[in-house]
Design a protein that fits this description.
206 residues; tt1808, chain A; 7-stranded mixed sheet; 6 helices; 7 strands
Length: 206
């Protein structure tokens, strides 16, 4: 039997979910005792059936908006659809507000943490594993933690290093993760990078 483009994408999404440790089930055949992470197809919401709702330990925490592969070029434009399902009440669960949204064609997958100060999607290589997603849910989002970066200890740092690190901090806090640091040869670029990485690891849990 020839599969439609939608069915091909769903089949690939199912495969990648299972590879990441999810058990994929149909809405009318839900069995939460089957495993920790359950991805339910066509789960009913107040906005209509969502392509997939993700449950961990019976708790709904995410939604997947599935699209055909030929819609990959406009996948960022369907974020509003996923948001609509994420903010709609779920049948049998009630007024649930889901923090995590995926848009996926099976080949391309994007992820949004709605708890970020300025939520926006980013491409990911695979779906998060159930244990990873629930751990993420139980913590403040990474972008939220970036807002708490403490004042830089400037002892032993050159003025240009202080300027670079402080500007990187400012960029991260404003949800601008891409930055270019230009410094002269011998000015301490490596130490600047290491100091920034250390701050992200120690104070933001990167």
């Amino acid at each position: 039997m020839t599969l439609t483009p939608e069915q091909i994408s769903r089949k690939e999404i199912d495969r990648k979910l299972e590879k990441s440790g999810w058990i994929v089930q149909n809405y009318k055949q839900i069995n939460f005792s089957a495993g920790r992470g359950i991805a339910v197809r066509e789960y009913q919401t107040e906005a209509g059936p969502a392509d997939y709702i993700l449950f961990v330990d019976k708790k709904p925490i995410g939604v997947i908006e599935a699209k055909r592969e030929d819609e990959a070029h406009r996948i960022t434009k369907v974020e509003e659809q996923g948001l609509g399902y994420a903010t709609s009440g779920l049948k049998h669960v009630g007024g649930t507000d889901l923090p995590f949204i995926y848009e996926s064609t099976g080949e391309i997958t994007r992820f949004t943490d709605r708890r970020d100060p300025k939520p926006r999607s980013r491409e990911v290589f695979s779906f998060h594993r159930p244990e990873t997603l629930i751990k993420r849910f139980e913590q403040r989002s990474f972008c939220e933690r970036l807002l708490d970066l403490p004042e830089l200890n400037i002892d032993g740092l050159r003025e240009c290093q202080v300027t670079a690190i402080n500007n990187l901090d400012k960029s991260f806090k404003e949800a601008r993760p891409k930055a270019l640091v230009q410094m002269a040869t011998g000015s301490g670029k490596t130490f600047t990078a290491i100091t920034t990485i250390y701050r992200l690891l120690k104070h933001a849990g990167a």
